[in-house]
Amino acid sequence: MAEQYGFYVDTSRCIKCWACVVACKQWHEIEAGTVSRRNVTETVEGTFPDVKRKFESLSCMHCENPLCVANCPTGAVSKREEDGVVVVDDTVCIGCKTCEQACPFGVPQYVEVEGEGFKMDKCDTCLSIGREDDQPHCVLTCPVQALHFGPLSEMEALAAEKGGARMEGETAPSVYVS
């Protein structure tokens, strides 16, 4: 396999503006109130007057050892050889939700497709709609440049500058956070 790609989230820059979430929904024509391929979470640490807030914009982790791929009974979920991005073939997905149960991060979500039942939906790094400058639209839209996407070696270097680290887990998530 070619080099694994992934994300780096600079939490010192994220301002919880939701631009990444809105861009994703807009570019993928996702109806409001349904699935969200990218989510912004908030963590609060400490007690008054020493309180720290941290925001993280996360999507599919595009794991090196994805359990969703290993557990999909139809082969609808696969990992691309050229960059390690985990993708879904919705023509093969039967909506059984096995991938959802296997994913330790709760990433897979389901949308009802008229006449076909439920199909899994998740971040595909904008492969299904075309990337601009080889970047997902969430990265390009971030007004404070808190999101980055590329080869893991580059994401590791960016994270190291800020004292960040790779997210942990048995699946080896392809995400660095600082």
UniProtKB/TrEMBL annotation:
<feature type="domain" description="4Fe-4S ferredoxin-type">
    <location>
        <begin position="51"/>
        <end position="82"/>
    </location>
</feature>
<keyword id="KW-0411">Iron-sulfur</keyword>
<keyword id="KW-0677">Repeat</keyword>
<keyword id="KW-0408">Iron</keyword>
<keyword id="KW-0249">Electron transport</keyword>
<dbReference type="GO" id="GO:0046872">
    <property type="term" value="F:metal ion binding"/>
</dbReference>
<dbReference type="Pfam" id="PF13247">
    <property type="entry name" value="Fer4_11"/>
</dbReference>
<feature type="domain" description="4Fe-4S ferredoxin-type">
    <location>
        <begin position="84"/>
        <end position="113"/>
    </location>
</feature>
<dbReference type="InterPro" id="IPR017896">
    <property type="entry name" value="4Fe4S_Fe-S-bd"/>
</dbReference>
<keyword id="KW-0479">Metal-binding</keyword>
<keyword id="KW-0004">4Fe-4S</keyword>
<keyword id="KW-0813">Transport</keyword>
<dbReference type="InterPro" id="IPR050954">
    <property type="entry name" value="ET_IronSulfur_Cluster-Binding"/>
</dbReference>
<protein>
    <submittedName>
        <fullName>4Fe-4S dicluster domain-containing protein</fullName>
    </submittedName>
</protein>
<dbReference type="Pfam" id="PF12800">
    <property type="entry name" value="Fer4_4"/>
</dbReference>
<dbReference type="InterPro" id="IPR017900">
    <property type="entry name" value="4Fe4S_Fe_S_CS"/>
</dbReference>
<dbReference type="GO" id="GO:0051539">
    <property type="term" value="F:4 iron, 4 sulfur cluster binding"/>
</dbReference>
<feature type="domain" description="4Fe-4S ferredoxin-type">
    <location>
        <begin position="5"/>
        <end position="35"/>
    </location>
</feature>
